[in-house]
Amino acid sequence: MSSEIKGRAASYGLSLILLIIIAYFTKEKIVEFVNVDYWIIYFVVFIVISTVLYVVIHEFGHTLFGWMTGYKLDAFAVLGYMFANIDGKYVLKRMYVPNVGGANFMHRDDDKTNAPYSLYIMGGVILTAATTIVSIASMLLINNAFITLFFYAMVLCGIFMTIYNAIPIKAKTGVYNDGMVLKLFKKDARSQEIFNKTQCVSLLALRGVSIKDAPEELFEIPESYKSVPFANELRLNKSEYLIYNGRHAEAESELEDIIRNLDESDNALKDISTCLLLMDYLINDADEEKIKNVYQNNKKNMETLSKYYLTAKYVSIAYKLKFENEWNIDKEVREFYKLAKKQDLNSGLELDMMKKLLSENSMSCLIQSN
Question: 324 in the Ramachandran plot: left (φ > 0), alpha (ψ -120 to 50) or beta?
Answer without folding.
Answer: beta
